[in-house]
């Protein structure tokens, strides 16, 4: 077992990243030791949340089927918000967009940082959309069925040569006017640290001429401080993470909708612009407890995977 390392800056424990399968494979140094152990909800409240989540998941297919298509978008958003609430997480949305052109028929690529599986619920609660997500999500308990309804575009990060297929699928759906969300860091981080967005999947916006909606996503506790409870990192299983989330108290998912970024012609430039928007006033380098284990910005300076797969 690889030992955890102590950050000299933050004093928090973190785990070194696992060896990547290939040079472009995203990895995070965050592990279970990064995640806060929050005040636990009581047995009765936790049980009620579990029943609420299960009830929503089982009722959704039937209700979705009988709902007229023109009303399904609102239904999906309400279901996502209710599901998030059943998980004990409140939603706060701050709209800083300077234009509402994303309400037009144009396709829209949505990008946000990645903390855990609750990110999908938080984004869908703002506006229903498809997602680029890990391929095995389809097989997860509870969330697998929801993923199929959300028309997830699966990606196997271990299969580098699959990238052009994923980008082509994204481009086609964006060109058809759909909203597609992705997490460009490529893996989850605890919420206090973050990685660099990988530019490869931004090519879908460039190819389809679709604008990009950056969203600043973070989780806060009842005191307004950053919360890592929803972090799905390291050796966490889905059940480990679900148990921690369902037993938490006072967690708020805060989403800041930022001004749109036009795609332009260079995915690298587009990724940099979106990163600057998502980080705001923060330093664009990785958080101190991540750099303490040797994953500074230079770690993400690697050859272009699209060029490698098409060479």
Automatic annotation (TrEMBL):
<keyword id="KW-0012">Acyltransferase</keyword>
<feature type="transmembrane region" description="Helical">
    <location>
        <begin position="47"/>
        <end position="67"/>
    </location>
</feature>
<dbReference type="GO" id="GO:0006654">
    <property type="term" value="P:phosphatidic acid biosynthetic process"/>
</dbReference>
<comment type="pathway">
    <text>Lipid metabolism.</text>
</comment>
<keyword id="KW-1133">Transmembrane helix</keyword>
<dbReference type="InterPro" id="IPR002123">
    <property type="entry name" value="Plipid/glycerol_acylTrfase"/>
</dbReference>
<dbReference type="GO" id="GO:0003841">
    <property type="term" value="F:1-acylglycerol-3-phosphate O-acyltransferase activity"/>
</dbReference>
<keyword id="KW-0472">Membrane</keyword>
<keyword id="KW-0812">Transmembrane</keyword>
<dbReference type="Pfam" id="PF01553">
    <property type="entry name" value="Acyltransferase"/>
</dbReference>
<keyword id="KW-0444">Lipid biosynthesis</keyword>
<keyword id="KW-0443">Lipid metabolism</keyword>
<protein>
    <submittedName>
        <fullName>1-acyl-sn-glycerol-3-phosphate acyltransferase</fullName>
    </submittedName>
</protein>
<keyword id="KW-0808">Transferase</keyword>
<feature type="domain" description="Phospholipid/glycerol acyltransferase">
    <location>
        <begin position="108"/>
        <end position="220"/>
    </location>
</feature>
């Amino acid at each position: 077992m690889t030992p955890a390392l102590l950050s000299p800056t933050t004093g928090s424990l973190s785990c070194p990243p696992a060896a990547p399968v290939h040079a472009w494979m995203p990895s995070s140094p965050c592990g279970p030791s990064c995640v806060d152990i929050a005040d636990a909800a009581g047995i009765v409240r936790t049980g009620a949340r579990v029943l609420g989540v299960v009830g929503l998941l089982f009722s959704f297919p039937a209700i979705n089927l009988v709902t007229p298509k023109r009303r399904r978008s609102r239904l999906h958003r309400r279901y996502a918000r209710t599901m998030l609430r059943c998980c004990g997480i409140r939603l706060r949305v701050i709209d800083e967009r300077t234009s509402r052109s994303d309400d037009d028929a144009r396709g829209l690529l949505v990008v946000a940082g990645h903390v855990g599986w609750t990110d999908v619920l938080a984004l869908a609660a703002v506006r229903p959309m498809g997602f680029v997500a890990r391929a095995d999500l389809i097989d997860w308990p509870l969330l697998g069925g929801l993923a199929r309804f959300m028309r997830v575009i699966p990606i196997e990060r271990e299969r580098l040569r699959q990238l052009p297929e994923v980008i082509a699928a994204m481009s086609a759906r964006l060109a058809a006017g759909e909203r597609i969300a992705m997490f460009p860091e490529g893996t989850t981080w605890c919420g206090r640290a973050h990685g660099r967005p990988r530019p490869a999947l931004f090519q879908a916006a460039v190819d389809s001429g679709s604008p990009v909606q950056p969203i600043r996503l973070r989780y806060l506790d009842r005191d307004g401080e950053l919360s890592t409870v929803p972090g799905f990192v390291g050796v966490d299983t889905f059940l480990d993470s679900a148990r921690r989330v369902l037993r938490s108290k006072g967690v708020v998912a805060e989403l800041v909708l930022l001004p749109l970024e036009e795609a332009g012609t260079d995915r690298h430039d587009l990724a940099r612009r979106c990163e600057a928007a998502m980080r705001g006033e923060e330093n664009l380098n990785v958080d101190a407890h991540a750099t303490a284990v040797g994953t500074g910005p230079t770690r993400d300076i690697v050859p272009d995977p699209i060029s490698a797969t098409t060479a």
